[in-house]
Q: What sequence folds into this?
């Protein structure tokens, strides 16, 4: 599962969605949630999908994760079609999804320990990720004993340790307070730079998207399409409060509004 | 000093009600308010208990029989409860997770559950005769329902995100049952098992009332026919104590075997 994740050349395509449609049956009526979603993500790229709640962005993420099947169209990860959930596409959920009966350390180790496999080699990795997310001192705490921000650090560490090809994040900081959210963004960016992880990040917070992403995809509620795709031409590290970030966020916000009123 | 007081209160509080009852009992019998053939005096019970537990068998009726009675009853409760736990957990998981299995089993099992356990006694006697098998049948049947229902409810209501988390971290469905589903519903499982074990003792006595030669329930029935009210009361107390201890033992076992039981909130 791990180990040979270097097959895609740097900058090559890691994830490709080809004409993905998704419809749900609701009270006997067909409801189209996604329409002709078609894009590619390069290896190591940080993509944010923004849109209002209910626009289908979480559905899109679940399809990439393999939890939902598209009505039509296909998803390719590193050239092979996605069929079901797997450790090569890891999810960080918005809500607390840690195993409450495992300590911080055991939660992080969960995915790398397999029955019949010896402990030891993995332990080094577990240590490394405990330190990377700054939770070494809290290794023996249970999820109910730590804060929301810490829980999301654990959620991040337990999937990053699996070295997924793509990290899928569904409004992972949505439930956190502003200060913690900022801390978590810095942590995420730090990890991203260190690990070169490909990330698909869903949010409704436009400035969060501008702060984080290489490229922003704007989804439209109602049509279920990606209406606009924009590179974020701002050098890193970016500053949330002055200069280009708030400016670009304003522009993006305007675009989202225009689209909504027009469509 | 404060710490010591806290300790006394902590250990003393659960004993308070029994102590008051025993005190009242001593007073009532000391003043002869209730005749001894209805409510024997505490001293009598103590001496009966001594004979039942420690005297040489054969010296007197019931002398020294405790150990063989307790062993017989424990075997019956243990195996009946074991069968119920196995089937209840297995079918509960299946019906909680697979909608088709729920459709298939749910109304049948709940129909059976509507039948008071005691109704099974006559037919159990016909099918299995008097003795171990009937008792086992009654205990297993009665203990099954709370275990099944709690396990199924837990399995149905577990946060799907936990299962999805397992799946995305590469856990196969079968392994997920052991590494995610079971630990995730440990509180419900523990509740079901404890209720089931409690009911096991009730149905043990029912099964043993039918005329088996040994066992704690059998002793109570036997004593009634001989008019030994002291022995009846002693039997009830012993079942209370052993029932309570077996609940503690169950929790201790779960806690020492499973992290998820140790760390239940």
A:
């Amino acid at each position: 599962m791990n180990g040979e994740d270097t097959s895609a050349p740097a900058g090559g395509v890691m994830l490709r969605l080809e004409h993905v449609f998704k419809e749900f049956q609701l009270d006997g009526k067909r409801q189209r949630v996604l329409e002709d979603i078609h894009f590619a993500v390069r290896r190591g790229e940080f993509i944010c999908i923004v849109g209002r709640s209910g626009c289908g962005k979480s559905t899109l993420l679940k399809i990439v994760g393999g939890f939902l099947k598209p009505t039509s169209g296909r998803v390719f990860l590193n050239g092979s079609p996605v069929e079901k959930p797997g450790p090569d596409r890891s999810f960080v959920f918005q809500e607390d999804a840690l195993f409450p009966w495992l300590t911080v350390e055991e939660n992080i180790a969960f995915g790398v320990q397999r029955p019949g496999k010896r402990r030891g080699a993995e332990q080094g990795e577990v240590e490394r990720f405990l330190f990377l997310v700054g939770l070494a001192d809290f290794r023996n705490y249970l999820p109910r004993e730590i804060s929301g921000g810490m829980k999301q650090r654990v959620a991040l560490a337990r999937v990053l340790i699996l070295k997924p090809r793509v990290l899928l994040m569904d409004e992972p900081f949505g439930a956190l307070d502003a200060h913690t959210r900022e801390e978590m963004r810095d942590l995420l960016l730090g990890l991203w730079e260190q690990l070169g992880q490909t990330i698909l990040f869903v949010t409704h917070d436009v400035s969060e998207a501008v702060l984080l992403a290489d490229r922003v995809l704007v989804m439209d509620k109602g049509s279920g399409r990606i209406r606009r795709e924009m590179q974020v031409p701002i050098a890193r590290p970016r500053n949330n409060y002055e200069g280009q970030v708030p400016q670009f966020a304003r522009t993006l916000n305007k675009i989202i509004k225009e689209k909504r009123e027009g469509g | 000093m404060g710490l010591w007081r806290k300790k006394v209160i902590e250990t003393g509080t659960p004993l308070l009600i029994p102590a008051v009852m025993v005190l009242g009992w001593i007073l009532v019998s000391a003043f002869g308010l209730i005749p001894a053939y209805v409510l024997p005096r505490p001293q009598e019970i103590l001496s009966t208990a001594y004979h039942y537990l420690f005297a040489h068998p054969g010296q007197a009726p019931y002398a020294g029989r405790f150990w063989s009675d307790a062993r017989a009853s424990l075997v019956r409760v243990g195996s009946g409860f074991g069968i119920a736990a196995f089937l209840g957990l297995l079918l509960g998981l299946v019906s909680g997770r697979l909608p088709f299995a729920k459709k298939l089993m749910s109304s049948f099992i709940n129909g059976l559950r509507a039948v008071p356990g005691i109704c099974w006694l006559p037919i159990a006697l016909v099918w299995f005769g008097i003795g171990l098998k009937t008792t086992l049948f009654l205990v297993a049947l009665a203990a099954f329902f709370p275990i099944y229902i709690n396990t199924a409810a837990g399995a149905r209501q577990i946060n799907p995100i936990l299962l999805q988390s397992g799946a995305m971290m590469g856990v196969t469905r079968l392994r997920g049952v052991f590494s995610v589903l079971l630990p995730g519903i440990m509180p419900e499982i523990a509740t079901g098992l404890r209720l089931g074990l409690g009911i096991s003792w009730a149905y043990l006595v029912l099964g043993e009332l039918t005329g088996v030669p040994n066992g704690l329930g059998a002793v109570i029935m036997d004593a009634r026919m001989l008019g030994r009210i002291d022995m009846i009361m002693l039997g009830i107390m012993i079942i209370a104590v052993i029932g309570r201890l077996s609940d503690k033992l169950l929790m201790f076992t779960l806690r020492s075997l499973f992290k998820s039981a140790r760390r239940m909130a």
